[in-house]
């Protein structure tokens, strides 16, 4: 009886942690893809994540466009999400194994967000070609740098752009090749 009363609380906590994780992943993608900060959604993401990131950025950990502080925060939030999630209650992670699993799941969730952004952007371009909604502008700014190398190799033919399809296949292959070996490292820690 007691576990039934805890489950809604755990569900709500994991959901809140997931939203926080989503905002930090979105901030990471905005910085990597050099998204315009004039967009209202981007401004919301910056206002939400700045109170945590600004104190941590006292130590600059940059490599080109990659901000390792955001990566550390994303992995830490993902580790908290794994730790709180009752579906993972059957394994007992050491701290090292937990952070390795969190790294694998964070990579998976970043690629999942890009995957869904590509799908939403493609569907949005079919039905709302002239829509200037901030969500579609943000999605275009996130996806366009990923389309560019594909379009150089395979240009659009007869007005059909195959770059979203190729990107979706590439994202799935990336997840299949990269995530399982990282996750399997947890056995050694």
Features:
mainly alpha; 6 helices; disordered N terminus; single chain; 189 residues; globular
Question: How does this structure look, described?
Answer:
The protein is mainly α and about 190 residues long. Helix content is about 75%, strand content about 0%. The protein has six helices and two strands. It has helices at about 1-30, 40-55, 70-85, 95-125, 135-155, 165-185; strands spanning about 60-65, 65. The chain has a two-stranded antiparallel ribbon with strand order 1-2. The longest helix is centred in the middle third of the chain and has 33 residues, at about 95-125. The radius of gyration is 19 Å and the shape is globular. Mean pLDDT is about 85; it is low at about 1-5.
Overall tally of structural domains? 1
Largest sheet, if any? 2 strands, antiparallel
What is the percentage of strand-forming residues? Answer: under 5%
Q: What would you report as the Rg, rounded to the nearest angstrom?
A: 19 Å
> Quick one: overall form?
globular
Distance between termini?
Answer: 35 Å
Q: How would you write the strand order of the largest sheet?
A: 1-2
Strand count = 2
Structural class: mainly alpha
The overall average pLDDT, rounded, is 87
Parts with pLDDT < 50 across at least 5 consecutive residues: 1-5
Which percent bin holds the helix content? over 70%
Order of helix and strand elements from N to C terminus: HHEEHHHH
Count the DSSP helices. 6
């Amino acid at each position: 009886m007691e576990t039934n009363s805890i489950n809604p609380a755990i569900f709500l906590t994991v959901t809140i942690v997931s939203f926080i994780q989503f905002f930090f992943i979105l901030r990471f993608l905005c910085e990597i893809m050099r998204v315009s900060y004039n967009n209202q959604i981007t401004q919301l993401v910056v206002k939400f994540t700045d109170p945590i990131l600004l104190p941590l950025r006292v130590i600059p950990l940059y490599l080109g466009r990659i901000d390792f502080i955001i990566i550390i925060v994303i992995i830490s939030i993902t580790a908290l999400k794994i730790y709180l999630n009752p579906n993972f209650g059957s394994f007992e992670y050491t701290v090292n194994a937990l952070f390795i699993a969190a790294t694998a799941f964070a990579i998976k969730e970043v690629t999942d967000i890009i995957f869904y952004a590509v799908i939403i952007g493609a569907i949005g371009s079919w039905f709302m070609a002239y829509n200037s909604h901030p969500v579609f502008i943000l999605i275009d700014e996130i996806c366009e740098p990923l389309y560019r190398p594909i379009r150089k190799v395979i240009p659009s033919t007869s007005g059909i752009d195959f770059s979203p399809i190729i990107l979706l296949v590439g994202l799935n292959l990336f997840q299949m090749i990269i995530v399982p070996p990282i996750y399997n490292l947890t056995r050694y820690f």
